[in-house]
Amino acid sequence: MYRRMVQIRHFEEHAAEAYAQAKVGGFLHLYIGEEAVAVGAIAAVREEDHVLGHYRDHGYALAKGCDPKACMAELFGRETGLCHGRGGSMHLAEAARHYWGGYAIVGSHIPIGAGMAYAMQYLEQPEVVLDFFGDGATGNGIFHEGLNMAALWNLPVVFICENNLYGMGATLAEESPVRDMIIKAEGYTMPSVQCDGMDVLSVYEAVQKAAAHCRSGQGPYFVEALTYRFRGHSMADPELYRDKDEVTRWKALDPIPKFGEFCVEHRISSEQELAQVKEEVEAEMLEAVRFADQSPWPDPATVDQWIYAKPIDPEAIATGPDQLSSVEG
Ligand SMILES: Cc1ncc(C[n+]2csc(CCOP(=O)(O)OP(=O)(O)O)c2C)c(N)n1
Ligand SMILES: [Mg+2]
Description:
Elements: H1 2-20, H2 35-43, E1 50-54, H3 58-63, H4 68-75, E2 99-103, H5 109-122, E3 129-134, H6 141-152, E4 157-163, E5 166-167, E6 170-171, H7 172-175, H8 182-186, E7 192-196, H9 200-215, E8 221-226, H10 244-251, H11 255-265, H12 271-294, H13 314-319, H14 321-325
Parallel strand pairs: 1-2, 1-3, 3-4, 4-8, 7-8
Antiparallel strand pairs: 5-6
Helix pairs in contact: 1-12, 2-9, 4-12, 5-6
């Protein structure tokens, strides 16, 4: 979990640098500060479980085990990218790893996650769905539709709300009548828990419990992770809406050194081993940038490829999601 968090941090620091050099187009939303949420949650479930989330998505992809080289090349818009350069930063996805993206329309993937959970229930598959979104998304109508159907049909989906206190430049108080997002889950009789999103073990524990609940057929669960993004909403954000002291206070809670200290204190790793992890990850990310930079652009003649899914063979549906994962195109 320590290595994964460091991977996300270093990946994004390099991505920010590449963005400033105009090597990455479009928007770039950094997850820096929130790494413990994706890492703790995804470590708490099985590899075959399904994950989807919003546009601040590099952390989910890396925590799901996607190759950092392919992720970086995707940001650079290259053919070697995770989605052949067609998706970019906000639309990372890898079917084979059951990582389904990366959605730019706020809240849009909430009912999609419920729908995937419905598929698991219908096919009698044991997998659960982790559906990540922000505090801002809970103000969208589609959030309520998704929670309503998930609760009504007892679907195996863990809704994970990353409450980072802001939706773009709007503070929580400006966007929501309640400060605690778990209150919104109560309206759907959904069990819920708040966890410390700056502490990877707190997230791990909460999601482990939530996923076990879903897997045992008891229906959906709502996890609220209290967290904070250390950078602006996107690279284009001058951050005029928040106090620098507030950012400094949250940075003192940085989940990476915090978990590093825990590992040393409990003799899980030595300081030298943690330093070695950082060094290895840094080399891996430098290689990812080099790979992305040297990769070819997509051939304009192939512009319509990798955009739409092929029609799915009904027999593949009947035989289960592993067959679906191999559908390409
Ligand atoms: C339906 C919709 N409305 C507005 C936007 C513009 N928008 C992009 S991100 C965002 C804020 C979302 O905040 P939150 O859900 O808290 O996620 P965070 O960025 O804090 O991780 C908004 C309003 C959008 N992408 N989609
Ligand atoms: Mg937010």
